[in-house]
Every structure is written in C-alpha cells, then in structure tokens.
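Subject: Interface between my chains keeps coming out wrong

I've been trying for a while to get a sensible model of this assembly. When I model each chain on its own everything looks fine, but I need the whole thing in one frame so I can look at the contacts. Pasting all components below, labels as-is. Any help appreciated, I'm running out of ideas.
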Amino acid sequence: MALFVTGLSHKNAPVELRERLAVEEDKLRELLRDVAATGLVQEALILSTCNRVEVYGVAEAPGEARAVAFRHLCQHRGVSLGLVEPLLYTHLDQDAVRHAFRVAASLDSMMIGEPQILGQVKDAFALAQACETVGPHLHTLFAQAFAVAKKVRTETEIARHAVSVSFAAVELAKKIFTGLGGKAVLLVGAGKMSELAARHLVEQGAFPIYVTNRTWARAQELARALSGTAVPFDELETALAGVDIVVTSTGATEPVITREAVQRVTQGRRARPLFFIDIAVPRDVEGGVDTLDGVYRYDIDDLKQVVDANIRERLREAQRAEGLVEREIGKFVARQSDVEVIPTIVSLRERLEEIRTGEVRKTLARLPEASPETRQAIDALSTAIVNKILHTPITKLRESSRAGAHRSWLELVHELFGLGRK
Amino acid sequence: MHATLLNLAILGYIAATGLSLAYLVQREEWIHRVASVATIAGWLLHTVALLARGIESGRPPLGSLPEAVSVAVWVVVLLALWVERQYRVKVLGAFVLPIVLVFSLKSTTTRALDLPGIEPALSGAWLWVHIGLVLLGIAAFVLNFAGALMYLLQERQLRAKRPGTLYYRLPALETLDRLTYRTLALGFPFLTTGLILGVLWAGPAWGSVFAFDPLALLSFVAWLIYAGTLAGRAAVGWHGRRAAYFAIVGFAALVLTLGAGLFLPGKHGS
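Reply #2:
Try treating it as a single job with all components included. I did that and got this:
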C-alpha cells in the first residue's frame, strides 16, 4: 500500500493545457466517484486550481492508479491522454508527503507565499471528505499538511512582505508611521492604481481621505467611493498642510507638487512626517522634495525596487521554510511508522502476559500452603522476567521503525512469537 | 561571593549581546527568545550581586564610580527590557547590550581597587541621592542613544529606497522618534536634579566644583547638549534626524564624562 500524488502544475505544464484540465466542483465529485469506483485506489483527493491539477491517493499499485485517474480526467475534459501523460509527475510515500506539505505551505506556488493555495487545498479536502474518498491515510496527511502550512506562515516571513506595488506602498507607510489609524490621506488625481492604494490605506485605518482632481466631478465621484471629501484642485497646497500621506497619479506632464510648495507646507508641521506615493508617470512630485527633513517620496520605480527586495526576502524565507518542512516530514514519517509498529508491540506484550499468568496460576495451584508473601513474590518475579525479556525487542522495533526498516522486523516478530498474521 | 555573582551576570550579558547581534541578521525567533532569557538571567544575577555587595559593605553599592556604573548598567537593562515590550522593538538588545557589556566589563576590572574611602565631608544621604539620580538619568540616555541610532539607520534605509535587512527589522520612524523623545524627557530631570545636588553639596566641600574634577566639567557639557535638544524639541519642534544627531552627540559627551571618571584622576575617580 503506497501513498502517491500524481499531476501537473505551472512548473511543467503550459497554461493552455492547465485551463483545459481544470475541473469545476460538481464535475469533481463525479470524477472522484468514478476513480474510487475502479477499486484501484483506496483513498483519493483531487486538487484542481488554475496552477495545478493533482490526484492524491492511496493504492496497492500507484502506477495503475495514476493511469486510471488521469484517463478519467482526460475523458471528462475531452483532452487526449497522450498530451498529458508525458507531463505528469508522480511522487510516492515520503516524496508524496513532501509534495503535499510544500503545496499547502505555498512553497510550490508560482508566487511563493501566496495565501490562496491553502484555502484551495482545504476545499479539495472537504470535497473529497463529502464524497467519502478520504480514509485514514489522507486524513492524517492533510491534517498535518494544514498544520505545517500554518507553522510556515507564522514562523517564517514568506507571506509577510508585499509583492504588489500598492501593498508595498502601504508597508512603507507603516515603516514611517507607527500605525496608519487616523492618518490623513490626500489623493491627487483619480487613477485606478491610486484608488487601490487608497483602499489599502483605508483598510489599515487611515482617515480622513481627501480627493482632489482637475475634473471636479471625478474628484467628487472618487471621494464618494472612498467615503472621503473632495477638495478643489487649486486648494491643493492647503490640503497638503493637513495630511500625512499623499498619493499622486495625475496625467500632468509637469510636477503638480513642487519642492517650494512642500517646503512652505512642512514649516508648520513640526514633527509630522509627510509621505508621498507618486504613482504617476511622468512624476507628479518634484524630485528634490525628499531632501527636506521628514519628507519621503517614493515613485513607481522606487516602489518596484521595494517589491523586488520583498520578493528576494520571500525567497530567502522560503529556504528556511523548506528546512522546516523537511523536519516536519521526518516527524510525520516517524509517527506513521510508530503507528505501524505499535499493534505488534501490544500483541507481543499480550502474548507474553498470557503465558506468564497461565504459568503462575499452574505453579500456585501446586503450592496450596504458600503464604500470600510467597504468592506475591512469584508474581513479581515472573513479571520482572517478562519485562526484562521484552525490553530489548521493543526498543529495537521502535528504532527500526524510525530507520524505516520495520516491515521485515515486524514479520520476523510475528513469525517468532506466533502472533498471527498482521 | 559578590564578585562571582557579578562575573556570572556578565557572562549572561555576553551571551545576550552575541545572540541579539545574531538575531539582527538571522531571523530565527528562538534566537530572540534565548537572548531574552540570557538578559533576564544576567539581570537577576546582577540584582543579587548588587544586594550582596550592599550587605557586605553596609551601604548602597554606589561608593565608587565603578560601582555606580554597575548600578547604572543594572537600571539600563531593566529599562531596556521594559522598552522592548512597550514599543515592540525586538532588535533593541542589539543596540543596548553592547553598551551594557562595555560598561559592565569596565566596572568589574576597575573594581579590584576595592572600597575607596569616601571623604567624610561628602558622606550622607545627599551623596546617595546625587549618585542615584545621575544614574537614572544616564540609564535613560543610553536608551535615548539606542533609539536615535535606530532612527538614523531606519531613516537611511527609507531614503536609500533599497530595503536591506535592517529595514525589515527596525520599527517605524515615528515609533523611534517617540522613543528618543520620551527617554530624553525622562532622563533630563533626573540628570538635572542629580547635578544640582552634586554642585550644592560638593561646592562647599571641594572649594570649587569644576576646578579639579574633569568628570564634573564634562558632565556639565553633556547636560548643556541635552538641555539644548530638549528645548529644541519642546519649543521649536525639532524632531527626527536633527533630534537624533543631538542625542548621539549628547551621549558621546556622557561617555567621555564617564570615561574621564574611570580613567583620569579626579575627585570622582577611585
């Protein structure tokens, strides 16, 4: 009996093929039942996202099971199996465990650390459970995969740093201001990207929001959408004086915010920093403003640079996450083989205990005049002998299971002590 | 007894310093946890060492400058532990503990000179109050310095627009600016009162306070710098970079002051 995963992903299969193979939920139920009905797999789970299609399962002959699973899938989607077959990867046992852990922890994702995949795996698991194709093996595997994914998220920073320009801007703001709660934001221009950045800022508690635009109607419209206040464009400088974060995205060819204007404004601001997020090209905020004390300006290139650094940071963290996953695989495999060894240990103990009590009873029957002390001593003696004898075999069995060589040991023990078939 | 405990405490501080610096570059949470444990263990041993010293000599363990520095270190560590939790600055140890280490090593190597006789003219409760207040002030200024240093590093990162390891590790500029302001506002009254008491008490006893004592002279310079910074912050609205530079200059003066006390002959020295 082997655990296996087989499938294809963004790593080796082109998007045209992946989208043709992607299965929607009700079709997935049908497919799961069909695969289970073949009797070739004991347990099955299908994960289908836009980046991967994978079948996880337990089977006596994983090779056949894999062929069956994808034959059904290709039939369902009207894709020729010959097209898919050469792209399929298959992992068995420990490698399948590793794959499941890495996928759930978003280490196998196109953008490492992206949070959606864990939800998708959980959905696939729930669906397979509903179809009753999940048994004890997949159950323990995925329960552990979810725990590992959570651990990776909390103990490493693979998902912490922003990989989009608008989120990177919000993170920068949080490195300037202690918190964004109650920080006033001014939107200059009404581009889509600045609206997105503003929404992120609002989510972090930024308030109030002011919007200014050369077209008054557009300013009003966006202000309504963000529950903010529209400000006439010629009052820009006045508005600047009262805000902490400025997001600019006008189509102007000349800077709309000059260094002199900012200098005038900062004189009355004292310790309040002023952060310009300039998403416009050409830029809206004059280059020299960030030489002023307490003024910070990031243009679109700067933000992209931060995003690049964040991605590098994620990759570095992914290295640590891989190590964590490896340790978890070790623990998981050890626990699994412990689970396989324990029934044998229990029956071994039971067998010897049976012999011991039987022999003690016989002996005591022949000694009717023995004092209670003597009876107790005989009982204790026999128990001690049994425990001494069992100690080494049990230790060896446990050790062998950790080394992964327990199957032959188990057979031997069953043979030697006549424990019956396992 | 006291010496052994103190050495153990310093061992704890050495471990904590190494771990805190490692945590700055290596993002493993366990390093931070072990560093915290080492710091707290060091501090507890230090506490017992100071108590033992006090009982041994029958007076507060502030009789000589090295002893006083040891007490200042004790206060700094306590304050740092509190600030770390209050401001959630997990990397604080990397900036404070090296200073702690230098001073505590210095204070033990000089300790060998043993109990100096305190001039009878100077003994009395006021002396202890003078020393105690100045020490509290110094402790706050160590954190003031650490805050300013972190502020300048984070500011550089933000201005360079190329985030490095420190960018991810250090807290927001506003947080650091508030930390330097608060520690300045905390330390200054202690230092001022402490120095005034020193002048009032030592003046009549020594004839002229500043004439022969480099420490007294330098401490006045440090006080002037801090007074200027505080005035600038409170009245003119100085903040950020400028305030941070002043915090660093002020601390340099303070270190010189203590250095003068520890290395140059004078009435404060031992």
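Reply #3:
Confirming on my end. Chain B touches chain A at residues 27-29, 154, 158-159, 161-164, 167-168, 170-175, 177-178, 237, 239-242 (CB under 8 Å).
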